[in-house]
Amino acid sequence: MGKSSTNSKTSSKGLNFKQNILSYFANAGNAIIPELSKELTISVPKVTTVVNELISDGLVQDYGKIESTGGRKPNLYGVVPDSAFFIGVDVKHSHINIGLLNLQKSLIKVTENLAYKLDNTEESLEVLCQYINDFIASLPINKDRILGIGLNLSGRINYSTGYSYSFFFFDEQPLSEIIQSKVGIRVFLENDTRAMAYGEFCVGAVGKEKDVLFLNLDYGIGVGILIDGQLYYGKSGYAGELGHIPIFDNELICHCGKKGCLETEASGWALTRMFREKLKEGSTSVLSRNDTLPEAIMMEDIIQAAKNEDVLAIDLIARVGDRLGRGIAFLINVFNPELVILGGSLASTGDYIELPIKTAINKYSLNLVNTDTQLKLSKLGEHAGIVGACLLVRDRVLALI
């Protein structure tokens, strides 16, 4: 075997040691040398050498000595929080949220509610990229310290190939590569619901639970599935299309082109349609008194009206909650999860949607199955998407998942 081949293997092994130790710090927190040696099955001298190299690289720091039961006090080591950063971009139908996370999982900066219209056009993609570039330019850090950008989109996303099949599928080049060429940082695509689910799992509403369902209740409906603490993607990466289960016997055409989907009666689109219909039939609302045409009223307006105790908005959100509960009951019967989290825009209405959902779950799911299932509202709220996007990039770059 040639010397160059041997050197290459040695170098690769050294990089693996570095990555393993850095990943341990990032996942488990600060540690002493003997602990690292035991957990990673690497000799103490080798751990000491690699930790010193990581300190020289500016990625790890010595946090000083800690108390011990006897002998010399050991030094505690951990990551330098601001040695690396990750950007999360959460793309909604009417706005964009962007956030910056450091290596220690702290959200450093958030820019919310950037006005945006998600269209399947090159112009819409250009606006998205410009927002990302503007955000990067506003940061007081060197661009090379940003190790990746996580970008969430609704619909069918294949994260492993970087393709989006619902938006911006213009040519054969993966969307992740197209955006990367425009912003100059590696880009990771993810379905918005899965990213939100991961955020809640890591730093949100999830405690020790491992089998979790996260419901993204927005204009559409998606479910992020975690089985034994791992995101479930399915064979082609598109698992979680809850909104397109044919659950109703109606003649309503869904956005997917089929009839009777859950989304036709239990989604933001359904809520908006029903609200407009009620106004045209003569029902009153604070929104109708504002001289707003029914066609101009959107889901966000109805949610705000409900928070202001508008009776029509509250009644229709309860109706949507009842329909949603049927779909969630189906999921509980199939997956028997420990925890179901309600997230997305509609979840911000709190009890107005949660209580009807609970009632429907009790009515339509098997008692033996739902007894051990908790139902919670999202803890991260509007930040779930950007936090999840950042954490997915962080954990993939550090090879934690």
UniProtKB/TrEMBL annotation:
Organism: Spirosoma aureum
SUPFAM superfamilies: Actin-like ATPase domain, Winged helix' DNA-binding domain
PANTHER family assigned: BIFUNCTIONAL UDP-N-ACETYLGLUCOSAMINE 2-EPIMERASE_N-ACETYLMANNOSAMINE KINASE, ROK (REPRESSOR, ORF, KINASE) FAMILY
Matching Pfam families: ROK
UniProt family annotation: Belongs to the ROK (NagC/XylR) family.
InterPro entries: ATPase_NBD (IPR043129), ROK (IPR000600), ROK_cs (IPR049874), WH-like_DNA-bd_sf (IPR036388), WH_DNA-bd_sf (IPR036390)
Protein name (record): ROK family protein
Top-level taxon in the UniProt lineage: Bacteria
